[in-house]
Amino acid sequence: MTKDKNLSVINYDDLQSKTMDWLRFPLMIAVCFIHVHQQVLIDMHPSVAAHSIFFLITQILARLAVPLFFIISGYYFFYNKNSQECIFNKEIYILKLKKRIRTLLIPYLFWNFVVLCIYFAGYLFVRHTWMSPIQVLSAFCYYKGTNATIAFQFWFIRDLMIVCIISPILYFLLKKGKLLTLLLLLVLWMSPLELFPFSKVAVFFFSLGAFFSINGRNIIKDIARLPKYPLYLLTGVFMIADLLLNEQPATTVHVVTNNIYVHNVFILLGIATVLSIISECFRVGKLKNVNKQLANASFFLFAVHPLPLSQILNKLPAMVLSHNDFTFFIIYLLSVPLIAVISVWVYNFLKKRFPKFTAIITGGR
What we know:
Blueprint: H1 12-34, H2 38-42, H3 48-61, H4 65-78, H5 90-125, H6 133-138, H7 155-165, H8 167-177, H9 179-190, H10 200-214, H11 219-224, H12 228-246, H13 260-284, H14 292-304, H15 306-313, H16 315-320, H17 325-353, H18 355-361
Helix pairs in contact: 1-4, 1-13, 1-14, 4-10, 5-7, 8-9, 8-10, 9-10, 12-13, 14-17, 17-18
């Protein structure tokens, strides 16, 4: 606990817990914005201004979500709520992996199998080209040689499971090497090198969260030491630079490629800014409680959003509405909240009617 001029005492552990819990649902909304059917929207030929806003949201701001999820996962993997000291040994490691069979592996297998069945139904009724036995097996890992699973968003869960498995190595390096290890992983993440058969994002940001937990540090407390307004200003500058350097004419779907270094600096600054703003809102009372219902529904939204979002809520309106900036934004900005509302309703219905089944497919959430 730390004294503050506005509040007599700040409980940073509680503040950090509330901040990270509150962020779960908004970050999942950001992931949904990344997964809108970009080609459908690009085919509507938006103006340069409309496309710039689209790019800013989808490829810059929303890209903060996945690193933040890995940071939160890394922090809580090593977190010991009963002690500030991180205790990590063989017994604890095995217990954590057993827990993640329920929270990660079983939902991972279930949802990839569901999408595989959808493909199979397409083969039976629409006569799509079926997959070879090897491709069927690859559906659960690296589908058809890509870096995604057949339920493509579950690459995140696959890579999260991998870094959990190698966590003893990360623990040793972060415990002994501390900031040096983190610096080396940062350089690797910033570089064009690909040394792992899984994402560098997973390794670095999981390790970043783990670093705080392993070394008994509080993320929110350390960020609170940064000068607030210079941080916000610098984040804004790099956000604009990222947009100006990377935004291209609205002709093809693309991601940030022109200056990945500026983009990555924005990601680091943006993460600190998001955590600073949300924790500050809790500290001064603008945010009071975490909506547990929305937070718990986040995984279900993660699992179900791509198909209806890209194939129904983006494609169908684009086929029947005239193509102009107004309809472009209607389809883009309303489709994500709509799928979020539907997903939360379905999740709550399933949780009420089939609680055991829902717990299994969402990892007990």
